[in-house]
Amino acid sequence: MTHRFTTFSGTHAVTLIIGVAVLAILLAGARLSDRAKTLVTAILAFLNLTAYGYTQFAWSCCDHAAALDNIVPFHLCDISSFLGGYALLTRKQLACELIYYWGLAAATQALITPAIDYSFPHPAYFTFFIQHFAIVGAALYLPLCEGWRPLQPFWRSPLRAILWVNVYFLFACLMNLLLDTNFGYLAHPPPHPSLIDHLGPWPYYIISFEIIAFTMILILTIPFLKKNQRHGAITG
Prior knowledge:
Layout: H1 10-30, H2 34-49, H3 51-60, H4 68-71, H5 76-90, H6 93-112, H7 123-145, H8 156-179, H9 204-221
Helix pairs in contact: 1-2, 1-7, 2-5, 2-7, 3-7, 5-6, 5-7, 6-7, 6-8, 6-9, 8-9
């Protein structure tokens, strides 16, 4: 029997501990040799690029029809999965920027307050956490194992990340209007406990989204401010 997933439960805590441990092993292993780095790159790229396939399989195992939000891959983390795989394989600067900022700002929040109904051992439980840990893994792998750095001067990459997240907000709002969906949780709060519950009523919490996104992106830039400028972007 599959139980309903409960945020901050024992299952949630154990899942996070295991996920963090696996990521730590992969990232540490990638730093040992070029062969290990190639293997870890392949694992993370595969998990990100195939996320849509294995999450759709999980939804097909549910006891009710999947909502359109879960079929069309327009949530920020769905897009981040594609970006993560693309960035790992190509090292394109913009893709690296977006997966770093979006992955660590958004996917980590999804891991802390998962928008999921099904708990262990349902396939949806496994695929949700595999996808989001794979996004975080890609976001950490690029700077820690490949030497990726934001552009110089320091404000260029954060500014581009902020501009692109607002492009996503506009796109998600348009899709929500046309499809009656809730991509980006911009139409209404999710039914599960989340940070949004503390940001005020709709639509005012969208303003809070903007402030939090801006703040998180700036915070994520701080570790690079004192890095030697010779560690520039991998590619233009």
